């Protein structure tokens, strides 16, 4: 019918998210590097547009930046594009991005849509190298996979790459699907932008699969900045697909579960609930690992960063010992434990930890070694991945 419709836009007030847990990065390997020679630091799609990002010349970067801010408005995003020919599988660009950002990046998404093979072990090593420099981050990578390759995915649970996740999701009916059209020679689009937006939007202890908070469907892309796109696009990610274009609705529950058990990230539906949701928050690590989920890594990384910041001013500083024992004085132990606890107290208050304990053994010989060992034990917040309800009839209710 005839009428006038309105669509409320997001981000016009340029409000920024508090804290630093949301600071994210997107790294693209592809021809768009020609138009994006410098690393960008933006807080909105409009910021990116003012820095040479456009649907006309950099459609893949534009789409994923738009998706990131659609999901995580007001977050901080660093963007870099590198020529596909420079990809050597070592991911030195991740390290240089983090170093250029002075360690501010908490999570990085890597788009390698031209590649059928990536070296996740090297990506994990790059992240571990950064962690050793007190600049820890988590990484998610998305790349090309054919239908045949998706049917024979290796089990990521056989690896030990806790800082890396693999996203195989893609839009199946919106702008992402429209960009994907054009033949098998085109790079895959993926949903890496939305995935990184979900991570940025989540608190460090939260799973990106949280149904109440992480619906990935919100709006349809329209507007002159999008170029010539169809007017009948579905809401973005409402039609969930895999990177080969296979719709999730075409897969049986058994087939979806098989992919899930291999610990990949994809979008799924829940009966009776509108929208699309992440299946889980897996990393490429063993299921029994303490760091088998993105939120585990983000939580401990936040604690590490906070403790490092608190203790750093006292590095190479004097420390008094008890004159009668030669051991660390009680006052110094209490002082240092309190410093280390400061960040953890805030994290517990904010619901990011269930509890913690900081321990400094007073019997350490600091005079002999100039070294101090601090033990920190964290009790994380759990995630309800399964809820099992037993239900049946009874003749009466026992008191």
Write structural notes for this entry:
This protein is α/β, with parallel strands linked by helices and 399 residues long. It is built from eleven helices and twelve strands. The protein has helices at residues 45-49, 59-71, 92-100, 120-132, 147-151, 175-180, 192-201, 253-261, 294-311, 330-349, 366-369; strands at residues 24-29, 40-42, 77-82, 107-112, 138-143, 164-166, 169-171, 240-242, 267-270, 273-278, 355-360, 374-379. A six-stranded mixed β-sheet has the order 2-3-1-4-5-6, sandwiched between helices. A two-stranded antiparallel sheet has the order 7-8. It has a two-stranded antiparallel sheet with strand order 9-10. The longest helix is centred in the C-terminal third of the chain and has 20 residues, at 330-349. The chain is globular and about 90 Å long. The model has no long low-confidence stretch (mean pLDDT 94).
Q: Identify the overall geometry.
A: globular
**Elements, N to C (H/E):** EEHHEHEHEHEEHHEHEEHHEHE
Distance between the ends: 59 Å
Largest sheet descriptor:
6 strands, mixed
- Quantity of strands, as a count: 12
CA gyration radius, whole angstroms: 24 Å
Count of discrete domains: 2
What is the overall pLDDT average?
A: 94
- Amount of beta strand: 5-15%
Order of strands across the widest beta sheet? 2-3-1-4-5-6
| Structural class designation | alpha/beta
Draw up the topology in text.
Elements (H helix, E strand, L loop, with lengths): L23 E6 L10 E3 L2 H5 L9 H13 L5 E6 L9 H9 L6 E6 L7 H13 L5 E6 L3 H5 L12 E3 L2 E3 L3 H6 L11 H10 L38 E3 L10 H9 L5 E4 L2 E6 L15 H18 L18 H20 L5 E6 L5 H4 L4 E6 L20
Parallel strand pairs: 1-3, 1-4, 4-5, 5-6
Antiparallel strand pairs: 2-3, 7-8, 9-10, 11-12
Helix pairs in contact: 2-7, 3-4, 9-10
């Amino acid at each position: 019918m005839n009428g006038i419709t309105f669509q409320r836009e997001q981000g016009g007030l340029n409000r920024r998210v508090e804290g630093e847990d949301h600071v994210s990065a997107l790294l693209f390997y592809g021809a768009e590097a020609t138009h994006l020679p410098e690393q960008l630091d933006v807080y909105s799609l409009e910021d990116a547009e003012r820095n040479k990002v456009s649907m006309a010349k950099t459609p893949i970067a534009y789409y994923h930046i738009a998706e990131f801010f659609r999901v995580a408005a007001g977050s901080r995003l660093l963007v870099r594009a590198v020529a596909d020919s420079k990809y050597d599988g070592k991911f030195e660009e991740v390290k240089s991005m983090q170093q250029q950002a002075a360690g501010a990046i908490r999570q990085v998404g890597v788009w390698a849509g031209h590649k059928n093979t990536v070296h996740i072990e090297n990506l994990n090593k790059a992240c571990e190298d950064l962690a050793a420099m007190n600049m820890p981050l988590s990484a998610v990578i998305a790349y090309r996979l054919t239908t045949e390759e998706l049917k024979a995915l290796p089990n990521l649970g056989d690896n030990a790459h806790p800082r890396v996740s693999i996203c195989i999701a893609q839009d199946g009916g919106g702008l992402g699907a429209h960009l994907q059209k054009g033949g098998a020679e085109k790079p895959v689009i993926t949903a890496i932008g939305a995935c990184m937006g979900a991570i940025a939007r989540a608190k460090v202890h939260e799973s990106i699969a949280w149904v109440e908070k992480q619906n990935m469907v919100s709006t349809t892309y329209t507007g002159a900045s999008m170029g010539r796109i169809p007017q009948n696009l579905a809401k973005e990610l409402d039609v969930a697909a895999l990177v080969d274009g296979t719709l999730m609705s075409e897969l049986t529950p058994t087939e979806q579960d098989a992919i899930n058990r291999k610990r990949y990230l994809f979008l799924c539906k829940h009966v009776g609930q509108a929208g699309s949701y992440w299946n889980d928050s897996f990393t490429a690590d063993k299921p029994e690992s303490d760091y088998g989920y993105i939120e585990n890594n983000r939580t401990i990384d936040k604690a590490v960063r906070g403790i490092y910041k608190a203790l750093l001013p006292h590095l190479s500083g004097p420390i008094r010992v008890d004159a009668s024992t030669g051991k660390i004085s009680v006052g110094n132990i209490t002082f240092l434990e309190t410093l280390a606890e400061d960040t953890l107290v805030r994290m517990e208050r904010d619901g990011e930890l269930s509890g913690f304990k900081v321990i400094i053994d007073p019997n350490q010989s600091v005079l002999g070694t100039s070294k101090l060992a601090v033990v920190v034990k964290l009790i994380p917040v759990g995630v309800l991945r399964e809820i099992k309800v037993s239900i049946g009839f009874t003749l009466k209710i026992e008191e």
